[in-house]
Amino acid sequence: MRRLGQGRAGEVRFGRFMSNARVTVGQLIQGVCEPAIIGCEGRHVLAIQDTTELNYQAHSQRVSGLGRVGNGVDAGLFLHPVLAVDAEEGSCLGLAHVHLWQRTQPKAVNYRKLPVEDKESMRWISAAESARQRLSGAATLTVVADRESDIYELLARLPDERTHLLVRASQDRAVDVDIEGDAPAQTLFEWLSGLPVQGSYEVQLPAIAGKRSAHTALLQVRFSPVTIKRPRSCSDGAAPACVQLWAIEVIEDAASVVGTDKPIHWRLLTSHAVDTLEMARRCVGWYQQRWHIEQLFRTLKSQGLDIESSLLETGQKLEKLAVLALSAATRVMQLTLARDGGTRPASDAFDAQEIELLHQLTPTLEGKTDKQKNPHSPASLSWAAWSIARLGGWKGYASERKPGPITMSNGLKDFIAIYHGWNLGRGGRDVCIR
Question: What is the value of pTM for the model shown?
């Protein structure tokens, strides 16, 4: 707070803001979601959701009002954002929703029999529904999530004429297929593996530390419509007896696997009609965009904003800080996804004064040769991203590794410092940059 306030007086101002009971988490969430609400108009938007925990155990002796995180011992809270990404351009439009909660009670003995509304897993449904409501101006909305979201109630409730699902299957569910004689009923995974391969193609996969090397993967694809039966464990008595979806199986050819890396094997369920290899590839590509929310969490934590080192002393203040920090991390992701070009304006992430400074700053970051010039249209978000990446330590050559969120985060920090000096030098008042 001291660093954010640029001195004692600023620290006190921000402290009062965080302590003000009239400044609610809900109001902050509504505010940080405004850019996505505006930017989604008429677009096909991917609403990518996932969960992370914020662990404050290192400060547990002086922090009050926190629950327990995943290990059941450490103090902290949970964060479940929905990130809006343009499905066609790949640009980040902002946050569509943020759900926070604290685990203050142990899991009930009869947890599996509870209605989904009484379980933490309800967040996958409620967050998606909130995103759908906020992004009502989008032409199409596709909710993208990993295996933890494979909940029958979500599969049954969410899809409508405008809203689609694209989730990675976790449960080997019972499926309704035509079976002759006394053959045993089939499950989803068995049935998928028995389908013929309907095509293959190559994709570039990024490295994931400790899990996968960056490489070109050859993917084999199967797809088909599927009828998923309602599981006996479903707690919603009003849920339909089955749901009609499409299933896609993606398996990496053994020849393209690097060393001891585990080959890609995704089973996806979607409400999109997948009747061609091209559409299956599009769905796989949309699912790959889920990586952006992992990068958002990486930016939020120790490699970027380091939110878990905060010295705020109450859970209520830390929840507010988490929403504001998510907004800042989303700004970093907007720049990261704009690095290759696109039509989005710089005003998506910068105000008029900041853009004015970027116009003055960019020529000082360019080299003498064309290869070291900013190649993007002035005042575009890509143009701004190039300059911020240069401030973050990127050399500016197209042949160099593309700048990631940590480079962008470092560049933004430098830009903020420059902005404060530039504004003071013009006789302006030193204000907090967003």
Answer: 0.92
